[in-house]
Amino acid sequence: MNPGALLLEHFETRARRRHGRVRRHATLIVGCSVLGLVIVACVAAPLLTAYNPETLDPLRPLAPPFSPGHILGTDQFGRDIWSRILYGGRIDLLIAFGATGVTLVAGTAIGLFSGYVGGWIDSVIMRVVDLFFAFPFFVLVIAIVAMLGPSIFNMFVAIWLTSWISYARITRGHAVVTKNREYVLAAKALGYRHSRVMLRHVLPNVVSFVLIFAMVDAVGNVLLGAALGFLGLGAKPPSPEWGAMISDGQAYILSAWWLSTLPGIAIVIVGVGFSLIGDGLADVLRADG
Amino acid sequence: MARFSFIGRRLLQLIPVLFGITVITFFLLRLIPGDPALQILGQHYTAAGAVEVRHSLGLDRPLWQQYLLFLQRLFQGDLGDSITFKQSAGSVIAERLPPTLFLVAYAATLAMLVSIPAGVISALRRGGIFDQGARITTLVGFAMPPFWLGIILILIFSVHLQLFPVNGYGKTFVQHLDHLFLPAATIALGFSTIVIRTLRSSTLAALASDYVDTARVKGISRFSVLRRHVLRNAIVSVVVVFGINLAFLISGTVIVENVFGIPGVGTLLVDSVSTRDYPVVQGVTLIFAFLVVTINLVTDVVHASLDPRVALE
Amino acid sequence: MWLDRPTRGARSRRAAKAVVIAAITALVVVGVAAAAALRGDTRGSASASDTFVLANAVKIDTLDPAQNSVNESIWLTQNLYSRLVQPNATGTALLPDLATSWKITNRGKTYTFKLRNAKFSDGTPVTAQDAAFSILRSKNLKGGWGFLLDAVKSVTAPDAHTVAIQLTRPHAPLLADLAMYAYAIVPQKAVKAQGDAFFNKPVGSGPFMVTSLKKDQELDLAVNPNWYGKKPKIKNVQVQIVPNDNSRVLLLQSKKVDAIENPPGNLIDQIGKFPGLQSDLFPSTRVDFIQLDQHFAPYKDLNVRKALNYAIDRNAIVKLAYSGHATPGSSYMPYKMLYWNALKPYPYDLGKAKAFLKKSKYPNGFKTFLIEVSNDVAGNATAIVIKSELKKLNIDVDIKTYELLTAYAKEDGGHSQMGQRYWTNDIIDPDEVTTFAVDPKGGANAFNTYWSNAKATDLVHKARAELNPVKRGAMYKQIQRIVYDESPFLVLDYSPYRYAHGKWLHGFHVNPLGAYNLSLLDLTVDDH
Does the bond joining B279 to the residue before it have cis omega, within 30 degrees of 0? Predict the structure, then answer.
């Protein structure tokens, strides 16, 4: 090791000890707080707003933000935007967790199995994975939704069918490396069942990487769900899904900019929350590892 | 030479991938619930017409024969007939390809112009104001829906400042540059968030590498070290990032074309969904996949030529 | 790394390098944009004041008058071809076009037209044979407008300037029918020789001719040097297809176009306040309605249809979908047209609606779907209002959105449920809309509802043959009453044609049939 790097490490360790665990966990804490706040707000929507997101009010269309009774204004139907953002958040958060959750579990399982087993099964599965990677993801999702028919459920199906490959690739790579480590070989020699070896010895190594990636994937899925809602291929009117709201508001951009702008800010906040959690996890793990 | 056999090897590896793409695209059409003939014929549905449609799509034959028929047509350049445009799907897609390719190239260029300086400077001045600012910008930028960003840019630069047209493609090359600036910038800004981060970490790694220490100890100026090793490393990383995230870049065009009304393949895809023009949807998916695979090959070759170690793998 | 602390000289050099890179990037970007902005001109080489530039919202389906089904295309082809007669600028009477005079003999069963000396844009003369060919071609087209002329026994050309039409029985709307866009005169030899390809660069005898066509982008017209009438004041017409509502408005604001079609309802007032611009609300023959396909059992039930009528708040639709620029609809016939029955629109009465639904076979509501057209802001808003209102009756409406032609295809053919549609008159006579809306054999299965009422159908046929205007008027009033009571479809509103233009444009006017071809003859465009 060169003298410069040694000295750098010395200084960094001193800094680390000085600022302690809080500093290391700062990003993670901020991310969790932001996301947590959003989740609580959306779940507690009925407590935070008196309006129903789908009730029309022909007397008060296109009211700007800070209008009396409507803190974020109303849309072209007089529907309260704050309430639509809160209720719409439920859909977008559902997409984030539902789409990511399933693909995380399925993709990890497949990748783990593939890497652990090896041989021709592994080759075949990885070939399939490589194949899916050749397709621009968004295009494939749209094509699948086109064939099945646009709806929120079919959007989930399309994401499940295509998103698992990233997780499979990550976990397979780690499984391949880990399966030849001493402790895994020892476990096998002790006669433990394969499933137990996979779950108890190989998986724990991968979990942290998978979770960090899952945060990035969650942001992607929120954006994807919103994009499909924007194109009318996922959530449809009068659903208060944020992407559909942005699309609806386009026609009014010249007279009522808040229709499209505010839901976008909501998406950014959720995305930043997930990203911070991902970054935070990376920071924590890097410092520990 | 090592490089040529590298290209040869990559081309060989391409073949199964290309076949696989055709298989997946072939199965796409089989996802349609119900009777495709009913969907295709719509109000003109007659029992006799349905038999004809099924025969022309080869649906009355065993699955493997259908696939061979599909493949055979593909080799002849026949992607099927568009239901709405009353011309071959291939010709419709060919007409719409130029704006999309222009947009992708434009966006890639703008992304590089922004990301390379930003990523390198972030790494050089690690922890400084620029770095912090870049981290926050990329964090927020990554979470921004591109369609939303596009609308905001339209609001600011087209509506209020009247600097750029709202949508369309224009007729001359200069008009293309004018019309496509905002859409390309929208895609570039999103894409840059990934590139800047990757570039930053790879530059940091390069700066901390033994090579740099050795060079410095030998007394070579920091500047030349920068130029020869770090910058070159940066460009290689950018090429790699482009390759990996290419699909992301191309996906971005679909939605941005839609927001800005550009008559490219992206809007064709979305329009075809709302007209249920399945042959065109299938054709576009295929073309996009080929595009990704081709550009991946090109980036791999560029990567290999910049970094000879790759060719020897 | 402390070993590597850069010297001040190196640091400033590095900073300078960064600045230079940033500056060059900025310069390149700004320079390109500026160059583009300075040189970008969508107008083409013609000078500004002899070209009229119009931005339309919908792409062109075809320039074949016999096959036109999209309104915007219809209004464009009317500039390319002549007909025997044409509607006047207010859509209330007929004027000569190719025919200079006509005689009606044989108790209304023979019409003889004398044609003027006219030429097609390629210089060949327009003959009576061309006219006879064109009319018969359109009449005999499967799925076309032939049913309007089912009283026509023969169309012949006794000589090059005379057209004779024999009818099997008196047919009151004949002249109005012949003024329709579908019966435009095309050159027989060329159409027979080239078939459909002819219509990519068609030859007509109207005031303008096509110089270039890109169906989903642009149509360019130039004055037809062989047109028989007085030369128009402008030399060229450029029609740009701009589907995005906001883009059209911005194009007008930046003076790149002279007029735009269909500015969004919520911007009508705002455009009026913009200096140099003016919004137009031209009285129209447009009727917006909801088709109710009776293949779907609930819609066969009269009580259900009545319930729907009372449950829909038309005033809310006017306010929310049209920003107030519309009128609640009652009769299926366009607002205040000839023989219009001033029935009162169904009022919004949830109580009555619930009562009717209880009497029906579906007292607990039902699930249904509504087909709407994408990119139709007013239509989409209407659909949302309807969905919201019908929810109160426990009727769950699923909105399905399709592109225009696909939506229409799905609404026809008997597999639909609720479908959004609108009507505009193509002729100035009530026979067209009545046949379409009421006569089960009238080409549209009664607006695709598959409804029929024997009494009404009988009246339709009688009114068509009745030459006495008073008797005819009474029959149409009765037909409207029957349709109103039976409500096979839900008439929602009448809305004007929305346009906007720059004040540098003079003389642009759209008649109630949606046609603006007559105004193009006197149009002028100032420098701007």
Answer: no
- The first and second tokens of residue B201, run together, are 């970490």
What is the Cα–Cα distance from C93 to C103, expressed in whole angstroms? 17
Q: E-strand spans in A18-162?
A: none
Q: Do B147 and A134 touch (CB under 8 A)?
A: no
C421 vs C225: CA distance, rounded Å = 39
- Using an 8 Å CB-CB cutoff, list residues of chain A that contact chain C: 3-5, 7-8, 54-56, 58, 61-62, 76-78, 232, 236-238, 250-256
- Give the whole-angstrom CA distance, residue C343 versus residue C330: 6
Q: Which residue has the tokens 């024997």?
A: C454
Do you find a cis peptide bond into C225, omega within 30 degrees of 0? no
In angstroms, the CA C212 to CA B7 distance is: 46
pTM tops 0.90: no
Q: Do A251 and C377 touch (CB under 8 A)?
A: yes
- So where are chain A's domains? 80-288
Helices (H), A232-257: 242-249
The verdict on a CB contact (< 8 Å) between A139 and B250 is: yes
B263-303 tens-digit pLDDT: 899 888 888 877 777 788 888 888 888 888 887 788 777 77
CATH topology of domain A80-288: MetI-like fold (1.10.3720)
pLDDT digits (tens, 9 = 90+) for C473-496: 999 999 999 999 999 999 999 999
CA distance B133 to B138: 9
Whether the per-residue pLDDT at B152 is higher than 80: the answer is yes
Task: State the Cα angle at C95 between C89 and C98, rounded to 5°.
Answer: 120
- Band (pLDDT 50/70/90 cuts) for residue C42 is very low
Residue C351 parent element (H or E) = helix C350-359
* Residue type for position B94: A
Output the CA torsion C421→C427→C432→C436 (10° steps): -20
Tokens of A38: 């959003």
